[in-house]
Amino acid sequence: MKLHMKMASSLLAAVVSTLLICAPVTGTELKIVMESRLGNLDPILSASHQTRDHGYLIYDTLFALDAQQKIHPQMVDSYKVSEDGKVYTFTLRDGLRWHNGAPVTAADVVASIKRWGKRDRMGIALMSITSDVSAADAKAFSLTLSTPSGVILDAFAKPSGVPLFIMPAKVAETPVTEAITDYTGSGPFIFKADEYQPGVKAVYVKNESYVPRKEEPSWFAGRKLAKVDRITRIEMADPLTSLNALNSGEVDYVQNINSDLMPLVNASKVTTARLDQLGYQISYRFNHLQAPFNNKLVRQAALWAIGQQEVMQAQFGAPENYKLCGAVFGCGLPYESDVLAKMVMKPNVEKAKALLKQAGYDGKPVTILHISDIPSLSSVAPVMAQQLRAAGFVVDLQAMDFMTMLSRRANQGPTTEGGWSIFITSWHNTEIQEPLRNFMIVSEGKGGYAGWADVPAIPQLTKAFLTAGSEAERKEITTKIQSIVYDEGVFAPLGSFARISGYSKDVKGVLPAPANIFWNVSKGVP
Amino acid sequence: MFGYIVRRSVMTIPVMGVVALIVFALLHFAPGDPAAIMAGDSASPAQLAEIRARLGLDQPLHIQFFYWLGQLGQGHFGTSLHSHKPVAEMISSRIGPTLSLAVTTMTFSLLVAIPMGVYAAWARGRLSDRLVMMMAVLGFSTPVFVTGYALIYLFSLNAGWFPVQGFTPLATDPVRFLQTATLPTLTLSAVYVALIARITRSSVLEILGEDFIRTARAKGVPEARVVLRHALRNAAVPIVTVAGSGAAFLISGVVVTESVFNIPGLGRLMVESVLARDYPLIQSLMLLLSLIYILINLAVDVLYMVFDPRIRA
């Protein structure tokens, strides 16, 4: 009897262990919490980082950057450039299919490039020298330029701002001022539109028919292997609640843990890391249309009055949480320069006072739009205000949420009619690393970016950058731009910071990248 | 009473009309531009103008108002500017958690606070009265988010009895509903228990000093009957008033609790829609909340008549 019992239990154990080993890994769900809510589902219409991360889950890109910032083909199999550098011919790789099973065609790519080329700053620049973009057959398409350019693949591979996500032609034909309503992509995950609840959750399921590349994954390049069956993005308004949920195991990944909450992380259950090493540049821009910053000397006085160290320390505390950087196009990036950087890094109150006197500053108030609802920006404006006051400026600090700032910033009128003098924002370093992407240098007058600087030399140099023949030439152009930007007081950087993300110890394969990507991530199983 | 209810119900129509006008005016005169929010940080003036035109925001305000009113008249609440989902669908998906929380909170608060208040009044001046009142002061003066985080720390993170966040509808899983609703209910109840207990105590105390109570006691009516039947019933009007306004406040004002416990309710939807300047959604939400206020006030008035025959007369 005992023997029978022993045999039976051994058999049962064997069956159970076999089942456990052989059973397919089904139903793994990754629960993620991002820093802010997903408000727009069109990654071409909106440059929001939340929308971009949604885009990376469901769409694919023609080219992609790896961790060394080298460009690799992603949807493209091969490409060639004509000898005169004007014609690029691309061939799509095999196995690309939309989520509905239809094959991805060159016509889809062409329509996607055209829509993106009307919205993205780099895309618009690219289209300005493009005479034709067309499909040769189902898998081949070409781009014909009127002037050769060395940044075509950079534009196709850039990971932020508005990345070139490829959509089906009928979706990409949506006017660029109108949001798409069909979310069919060809990426490693499928968006479940029927489960989407704005402000509550968004759900993505594994795209079983996605054919990944063979290369090792690195940033946005290589193999995009969906290793979980389902990703549920849970919207949480409160940073402490999301950390509590991560500590208790209710969620698996939290995009951002504020530095003041770090002591509350349960290190036995949660891994923390700066997954995005490049980080963000914080910067401010003047309103060139209205007093007092319609005067170049007053702008220069403000640049000398404001110092980075004081601002970044007040905002981020410990030095390991931030970096000081006086480069217009970011530090540690290809076009870093220290030309005139001293104007924006350390305050020189005496110089600022002298410039104000020379400018005949009459005490006109400086209205600073103080964003109070974004933890990484909320302490910046009060410190800047104090630095400006120390130099003799009269400052009116107006607190508001980020969305109100966006609305208010569109007002070109004087401060007495709802206008403004300085706004503060942050950009990912991949969005400012060269002139074609960097909005803060835009100097095209009233029709340009908020602040409406009008410095014709900057758009001219930006155009020259687009058509420059060599990297050395591009470096020279960017250095010149930096010199003009600071001399004219177009904008000033305040430094950079990188977010800290947290994820459960149960989660493996999280890839560092300058966006939040979830391929290669597994949960519970190695 | 039926005639009174019908009259009051009809009166809500012009009130709602005025509310609609005020809400529309407030929204459109307040700073903010949904087009700027939709276009994002990098939009040019031309792109903004194009989006404004597409949304109809470039039309004169009175045309926008009458268009909205016309749509409302046909039962169309519009479409969210940002998510492009029908406003009615968005509100209906978010009203459940808020209503559930309001019902559990008010039920729990009334069940706890009224006996507490009655007992405190009956035991006036004793240690137990002081303890009850001390708890009431504590409950009323502790910010909701402090109570919420403290409960999460004790019962979720340490004891592991309840989830930290989220909400499961009663119809989906009753057990899970109780698990997810317990801590938010206790958090919100702290304030209402305090408020209702204090009002109950002072109202019952006042009645206990009346001549008819002395007469009842002199006639030998049992003390429990004196307190519950005679005193509490006559003290009901202020309690109903506080409970009514509390319920109305709960439906519109649970933003903090919904954020702390990540409950996808109307409070959070309102904040999100205001931040995004989602005009159709804000307008409909304001109308709905105004209607709820009016209906709760109507219910309170009816209850006055039930508890106090003099009002009925």
UniProtKB/TrEMBL annotation, chain A:
GO terms for biological process: peptide transport. It is found in: Periplasm. InterPro entries: Peptide/Ni-bd (IPR030678), SBP_5 (IPR039424), SBP_5_dom (IPR000914). Pfam families: SBP_bac_5. Keywords: Signal. One of its GO terms (molecular function) is peptide transmembrane transporter activity. The keyword Membrane does not apply. Residues 70-430 form the Solute-binding protein family domain. GO terms for cellular component: ATP-binding cassette (ABC) transporter complex; outer membrane-bounded periplasmic space. Its main location: periplasm. Belongs to the bacterial solute-binding protein 5 family. This is ABC transporter substrate-binding protein. It comes from Bradyrhizobium arachidis.
From TrEMBL, chain B:
It is found in: Cell membrane. The chain crosses the membrane at residues 12-30, 99-122, 134-157, 177-197, 235-261, 281-307. One of its GO terms (cellular component) is plasma membrane. Residues 95-304 form the ABC transmembrane type-1 domain. GO terms for biological process: transmembrane transport. InterPro entries: BPD_transp_1_N, MetI-like, MetI-like_sf. This is ABC transporter permease.
